[in-house]
Design goal:
The chain is built from nine helices and two strands, in the order ααααααββααα. With about 300 residues, the protein is an all-alpha fold. The N and C termini lie far apart (about 160 Å).
Length: about 300
């Protein structure tokens, strides 16, 4: 009886062990099959992806077509629109594209003015042998000053040319200083807001003060010729010894240059006068009508105030 029980138990245990081994083999086969299938699937997907990327590289438009077919694009777009709508106020007006700006008359004048300054700068730089950058600064200052005080910038530049040959440090024996040979001791009050008399050798200050004096003399004289005669200090005399003629000749040349005409840079008047032979670049009118012509030097300047 006991042997029978032992045998039955042994048989049962052996069957269970056989069943467990079979299940283990089945499970192992199943896992290996799944892994093999996944491996093959990933390999196929990788090949497909590589082929797709190669196709999009050759034909970029395929990328846009694939994106258009994606169901996620619409969802992302909708979410983005909702976010923007939530961030913007409800009453924000719809903005339309700004119309293209039509060139105005002021723009045309500005362009013409800039082109004119370039021509004048180039011509003066060659004529008076001054560096282009320095000449550009002086020309720009003259134009800005002229616009501010309502005077022709070419007239200012013509006076600068004859007075100093565009030498900002020119000084005559009697004290006429700078580009426009201003008598700083006589016109010291005009330099007060610009830094005092020491500013007479500052190009910008000298141009401004000289231009104000020139405009005042032109207004008082009633014409450019009369204003130049006053500017050189010959108001009480019959002649200015040719000073006005030289300035006006340079003025005409600059007008031609400003219109784009070809004007020779080498003329008799092109050579700047030396400061040491100048006597008084901007003297006031003689205070006495009895002053004689002997008061003038050979270049038309007053020998003394």
């Amino acid at each position: 009886m006991l042997n029978r029980c032992i045998r039955v138990t042994f048989d049962f245990t052996r069957r269970k062990a056989s069943q467990s081994a079979a299940w283990a083999v089945f499970a192992g086969d199943t896992v290996r099959g799944f892994v093999t299938t996944a491996h093959h699937t990933l390999m196929i997907l990788g090949i497909i992806a590589i082929a797709a990327l190669s196709a999009m590289f050759v034909k970029p438009e395929l990328a846009d077509q694939l994106l258009a077919l994606s169901p996620f694009i619409e969802a992302d777009t909708a979410e983005a629109e909702d976010t923007v709508a939530a961030a913007e106020p409800a009453e924000t007006p719809v903005q339309t594209a700004a119309p293209s700006k039509v060139p105005s008359e002021d723009d045309s004048k500005l362009a013409a003015n800039s082109r004119q300054q370039q021509w004048v700068t180039s011509w003066l730089s060659k004529r008076y042998r001054v560096a282009s950058d320095a000449t550009h600064m002086l020309v720009s200052t003259a134009y800005m000053t002229a616009k501010d005080i309502k005077l022709d910038p070419l007239l200012i530049l013509s006076v600068m040319a004859i007075e100093s040959g565009f030498n900002p440090f020119a000084e005559s024996p009697v004290g006429a200083q700078g580009l426009m040979q201003v008598m700083s001791k006589v016109h010291h009050d005009k330099f007060q807001e610009l830094g005092g008399v020491k500013a007479a050798l500052n190009p910008a200050a000298n141009i401004r003060v000289g231009s104000l004096i020139l405009k005042d003399y032109v207004t008082r004289g009633g014409s450019i010729e009369a204003g130049l005669k006053l500017y050189v200090g010959a108001g009480a005399f019959d002649s200015d010894s040719g000073y006005g003629a030289r300035v006006l000749a340079e003025y005409r040349r600059l007008k031609d240059v400003s219109m784009g005409k070809k004007v020779p840079v080498s003329t008799v008047a092109a050579k700047p006068r030396q400061p040491e032979i100048k006597t008084n670049g901007n003297a006031e009118e003689p205070t006495s009508a009895s002053a004689s012509k002997d008061s003038f030097t050979k270049d038309g300047k007053l020998a003394a105030l």
